[in-house]
Amino acid sequence: SQKIEQNSEALNIQEGKTATLTCNYTNYSPAYLQWYRQDPGRGPVFLLLIRENEKEKRKERLKVTFDTTLKQSLFHITASQPADSATYLCALGLSGGSYIPTFGRGTSLIVHP
Amino acid sequence: DAMVIQNPRYQVTQFGKPVTLSCSQTLNHNVMYWYQQKSSQAPKLLFHYYDKDFNNEADTPDNFQSRRPNTSFCFLDIRSPGLGDAAMYLCATSAGGTGTDTQYFGPGTRLTVL
Predict the structure, then answer these.
(1) pLDDT for residue B9
(2) Residue of B37, B53, B91 to mutate for A, most A C-beta atoms under 10 A
(3) In sequence order, what are the residues at sequence separation of 6 or more whose Cβ sits closer than 8 angstroms to the Cβ of residue B14?
(4) Staple partner for A76: which of A15, A63, A67, B77, CB 3.0–4.6 Å?
(5) C-alpha to C-alpha distances, A102 to A17, B18, B69, B74, B99, nearest whole angstrom
(6) How far is A21 from chain B (nearest CA, A)?
(7) Measured between alpha carbons, how far is B96 from B33 in angstroms, rounded to an integer?
(8) Nearest CB to A99: which of B40, B88, B97?
(9) What is the mean pLDDT of residues B36-62?
(10) Burial call B13-24: b when 16+ CB within 10 Å, e when fewer
(11) What is the pLDDT of residues B74-112, one digit of tens each?
């Protein structure tokens, strides 16, 4: 069966360090992968999209990599700040299928001052 | 600012008492979605509208219904809420047909069932 796996344990890091979150998937052939941020009690907010033929995307302090061989995406936040504390969800969109992405459960990031 | 609005933000209902959640958008997007999200879980797609075309997910209970009277508004009706329906309900929109469907979410409605 198809699975999207994100670490259920919270990631705790110190302010200023780089946070790295992982999204693994099985039995998918994604055409693209998205990352969203979700604050407690709020809806997710779109951050970045990377397509299957792209290895890396950057936006300000954010970087996403996409390895279709490893079936994995890494999401990096450099120079992390306490305001980056949130849950980060990955979402996969399929090749040639529905345009609607399927979401992972997300990983909580806590940045300590 | 263009946005997705959900009302109410918090809804308390009694077991078996029908409830309606509303969503409106100023993005003029073709597609509107309803998701159910329980604590520490992935948002679960219930159904979506592409314009007026309604698409129900196979595992969405019959207890859940939706209406989209016009482009801007969409409603989620829960006919007989059970305790298991307590969750955050998220409305989202997207332009649709772009192949990489970025979702724009509202703030959500937290439903409590007593």
Answers:
(1) 95
(2) B37
(3) B81, B113, B114
(4) A63
(5) 30, 29, 26, 21, 14
(6) 16
(7) 11
(8) B97
(9) 93
(10) beeeeebebbbb
(11) 999 999 999 999 999 999 999 887 677 789 999 999 999
